[in-house]
Amino acid sequence: MHTHTMSQDEMKACIDACTNCHHTCLQMAMNHCLRVGGNHVEQGHFTLMMDCARICETSVHLQLSGSSFSAELCDVCAQVCDACADSCERLDGMDACVAACRACAESCRAMAKAVH
Amino acid sequence: MHTHTMSQDEMKACIDACTNCHHTCLQMAMNHCLRVGGNHVEQGHFTLMMDCARICETSVHLQLSGSSFSAELCDVCAQVCDACADSCERLDGMDACVAACRACAESCRAMAKAVH
Amino acid sequence: MHTHTMSQDEMKACIDACTNCHHTCLQMAMNHCLRVGGNHVEQGHFTLMMDCARICETSVHLQLSGSSFSAELCDVCAQVCDACADSCERLDGMDACVAACRACAESCRAMAKAVH
Amino acid sequence: MHTHTMSQDEMKACIDACTNCHHTCLQMAMNHCLRVGGNHVEQGHFTLMMDCARICETSVHLQLSGSSFSAELCDVCAQVCDACADSCERLDGMDACVAACRACAESCRAMAKAVH
Fold it and tell me: What CDD domains has UniProt attached to this entry (chains A, B, C, D) (predicted)?
């Protein structure tokens, strides 16, 4: 557990980035990827999309709850977001997802450092 | 299952209302209610706060996924939101939660009707 | 809200059925369906698999929490489980999922009736 | 990402331990702790109970999904479970929760190591 030194504004920004990444990944996986098929439903890629949505959703939950473990989860979240962005960059039509994942990864890394 | 006749804008509005209600209920339950204590941690009230957060989170998930059962879940979500708003109205300092729950209930009822 | 008249054993059985259905649908969607491809990743089918996993997970959450809205959610859960079972019956290698969904639908319908 | 070297049996055991811990923490928080009140609804303790339930639920989700990040999440899960067990040991009537948390922490630590 940590002494939380992040400002309310910084945490609000991280919650917003995670919410946006959660929504974008889930919506694109279930609508864009399933409709396009092919590489978009390859197991490794699709699993990363769903993992990323779920971890971001959990990160939002812990931050809103005032959890002492938000930093630890944000650290994992940043890793998943970067892996998802890498996978999306290799496919067509996933620019919105790449942008959401990179922004979330950056915000989560700042959060993970601030509270350690 | 239903023919979805709601516009993208209306669904976007419902997702936003559910997201806001989810965040407000969870944050207030875990921060405000647990700190204030007394009536705010009475089992019936606190359970409604957490139920409401969870149902709204699930409603967001189904709508983003393009689920055929979004209307059925929105119907339950509207009921939980109204019950949570009623409970919050009997306590001090819960105005933000009342407003978020009422707005979400209204949006979910519109969603539930539109697709039937 | 309802007078809960279900026994602890009946609720335990419903929680177990929902947990099993959640686990089976999620595991088969992300492992079996994504690997097999073709009809198994058709949007309608795959969305039902993921919906079913999520609704069952939420049903478990509400029942464990002692929610007053467990019956309403179990009613929706039974509908999703039956739709998912119907979809799985049209595909190869989904017998375990059909069985888990049918058992969960039956248990959820009993739960939904008992508390009304 | 890692080469997964854990056996199916070991992962099954970890999923079961996380499921049991998730169910036990959530049920005891929302039923036992809210009913007993006093120290049981002190913010630090109650937040740990809900964090632990949520992280275990997410750990189950990632493992069932075949996620490449199960190990990273299990590492965080083990830390939360131990903190929750420590908190529960200082209160009356929480023996079942202590046992579920310790067993889950041990299983998650094995999982986190096995795949690195």
Answer: DUF326
Q: Exposed/middle/buried for C99, CB within 10 Å: 0-12, 13-18, 19+? A: middle
Task: Tell whether C3 is covered by a domain.
Answer: no
Chain B residues whose beta carbon lies within 8 Å of the beta carbon of residue A62 = none
> What are the tens digits of pLDDT across the range C93-105?
999 999 999 999 9
Q: Tell me if C50 is assigned to some domain.
A: yes
Average pLDDT, chain A: 94
pLDDT in tens, D17-62: 999 999 999 999 999 999 999 999 999 999 999 999 999 999 999 9
The domain tally of chain D equals 1
Name the residue among D36, D42, D65, D58 with its Cα closest to residue D104.
D58
**Which residues have C-beta within 8 Å of that of residue B9, sequence separation ≥ 6?**
none
Q: Which of D25, D26, D27, D30 to mutate to test the interface with B (most CBs of B within 10 A)?
A: D30
Contacts of B38 in chain D (CB under 8 A): none
Q: Is B42 left (phi over 0), alpha (psi -120 to 50) or beta?
A: beta
Over pLDDT 90: what percentage of chain A? 89
The CATH number linked to A45 is 1.20.1270.360
Angle (CA) D4 D7 D8, round 5°: 105
Instruction: Name chain D contacts of C63, Cβ cutoff 8 Å.
Output: none
Residues in contact with A79: Cβ distance below 8 Å, sequence separation at least 6, in sequence order: A105, D69, D72
What's the pTM value of the predicted model, to 2 decimals? 0.95
Spatial CB neighbours of C23, under 8 Å, sequence gap ≥ 6: D15, D19, D60, D64
List, as one string, the DSSP characters of C20-74.
HHHHHHHHIIIIIIHHH-GGGG-HHHHHHHHHHHHHHHHHHHHHHHT-TTHHHHH
Give the phi and the psi of residue D91 in degrees, each rounded to 5.
-125, 160
The boundaries of the domain holding residue A46 are 8-115
Give the contacts of C16 (CB within 8 A, at least 6 positions apart): none
* pLDDT band of C2, cuts 50, 70, 90: very low
Whether B58 sits inside 8 A of C55 (CB atoms) is yes
Would D82 be classed as within a structural domain? yes
Q: Do D83 and A62 touch (CB under 8 A)?
A: no
Cβ–Cβ below 8 Å for D66 and C31: yes
Nearest to B30 among A23, A27, A65 (CB): A65
Left, alpha or beta for A85 (phi > 0: left; psi -120 to 50: alpha)? alpha
Mutating which of A51, A75, A77 best tests the D interface, going by the most D Cβ atoms within 10 A? A51
Chain C closest CA to A90's CA: distance in Å? 19
